[in-house]
Amino acid sequence: MPYWLLKTEPEDYSYFDLERDGSTIWDGVNNALGLKHLRTMLPGDLAFIYHTGKERQIMGMAEVISEPYADPKFNDAKLVVVNVRALRKVSLPITLAQIKQDGKFTDFDLLRLPRLSVVPVSGLYWQRLLELTGGTN
Q1: Which helix (H) or strand (E) holds 88?
Q2: Cα–Cα distance for residue pair 76/70, rounded to 1 Å
Q3: Whether 7 contacts 119, CB under 8 Å
Q4: CB 9, CB 56: distance < 8 Å
Q5: 14 exposed, middle or buried (CB, 10 Å; 0-12, 13-18, 19+)?
Q6: Residue 33 and residue 67 in contact, taking contact as beta carbons nearer than 8 Å
Q7: Is 0.85 topped by the overall pTM?
Q8: What tens digit of pLDDT does each residue of 59-103 get?
Q9: Average model confidence (pLDDT) for the chain?
Q10: C-alpha closest to that of 132 among 57, 76, 24
């Protein structure tokens, strides 16, 4: 199963907004590599929701609930979105600094490509992040 990390500015749309809404369209991705990742998502894929900005931490988990489709806000087939639903808040939010200090994330795109808003997460990294956030799969 593919795993993801989806970044969001908490002032614009936070994990708590997703929890309140139940589900949402995950939009606003303009980067070519981020869009490429969105195009490979499938219903059932799991994702960590990561707050950017001053927080820089994983706050919750979500599930992809749709296949990718053209962003309805634009007349451009290249801009795709998916629908996600909230699963749960993590027990222990984990900061970017903690991930960097862990030493087990050397090839993690979150660290290698810090501006990327849709980050693939390997199964090994997913399990380690679950451990660090106090969750189980």
Answers
A1: strand 80-95
A2: 7
A3: yes
A4: no
A5: middle
A6: no
A7: yes
A8: 999 999 999 999 999 988 899 999 999 999 999 999 999 999 999
A9: 95
A10: 57
